[in-house]
Amino acid sequence: MSPKRVKVTKHMMKEDKLVTTTFKFTEYVQKHSREFLIAGAGVVVVIFIVLFVISSNKSRNQKAAELLGKARVELESGEFQIATTDLQTIWRSYKGTNAAQEALYLLGNAYYYSKDYDQALRYFQEFVSKYPKVAPLLLSGAYSGIGDCHMQKKEYAQAAESYLQAAGKITDDFVIPNLLLSAAQSYSYANQLDKAKELYERIITKYPNSKVVTQARLELAEISAQKG
User: What is the pTM of this model?
Assistant: First the structure.
């Protein structure tokens, strides 16, 4: 009597395949143990590189922040030339860091206080171009810096437009009237009296409690007298 045949179930087939696969894999590892050791070493190297990059970035950010702190002190002390050198180093050597972003903004200020208005204008314009989504007050400050540079260069209409851009970036009712006043005065210098008049009237109507409202009334009266 022939032995009873065992019915091969799907579960048994899976187990058999698993055993076969495991055996084959074990055999493969044994034959290629050197390659697996090398691969393992490669993983270790990759991990080491990642940790090194993280550590380097941390060190890089720290160095940039330290140099930025030094440059801030130099600016406050009126050492504009030294500050400019340090800020240039941050901007050129530490791109991608928060310190580099602020350094670009401060370069505009440093050159402005050094009375190099062309360079100041260049850096303020580069800042608003590269960082259009930066904090509104900082962006407004850069546009205001552009306006100040144009004023110094006697480019009054361009100055007015820049001050208006600065005002449009913020919602601060304390700062906006000052920027509108600067824009109105710039239009007056450019002999665009209708535009100046409109801005003076906006200050008086919309910001009646502003500290510059009295100045706006006086200058509006002067324009009215000129126009007869």
Answer: 0.74
